[in-house]
Amino acid sequence: MSIAGKVSALYDAGLALAFPLECAACGGSVESRRDAPACSECWRETRIFSETDALCWKCGELTAQCMLAEERLKNVRCGRCDGAAFDAARAVGAYRGGLQAAVLAMKREAHVGGRLAALLFAAQQ
Q1: Mutual angle of helices 114-124 and 97-108, in 10-degree steps
Q2: pLDDT in tens, 18-49
Q3: Residue 23 CB: number of other CB atoms within 10 A?
Q4: DSSP string, 35-99
Q5: Is 8 left (phi over 0), alpha (psi -120 to 50) or beta?
Q6: Higher pLDDT, 41 or 17
């Protein structure tokens, strides 16, 4: 770990002692600014989608837990969103646990945690 990483970890530990933050998902303690507002355990349990997941091209919902050829991944439809009025929606993961807590917190506060910011940045590329 670099010196900057050690200083950041020490700063996180000091903040956790002085200003304990409760996990918005499970009620445990958040020990890293990067994970806020959820704890690292809730983030670990959150299903983040990857490029190989079969997601509906219209609503972004995970449609199947199977392996599809890369060219077929772009044409997957769930069928549940056929009557929806929107053209397209995207998701970076299942709306549960750490991801749900971070999205709800983002609606109330101007701060976006480092983990959520990284997921949003990766999703837009």
Answers
A1: 100
A2: 777 889 999 998 888 788 899 999 999 999 98
A3: 22
A4: TTTS-HHHHHHS-B--TTSEE-TTT--EEESS---HHHHTT---STTTT-S-S----SB-SSHHH
A5: alpha
A6: 41
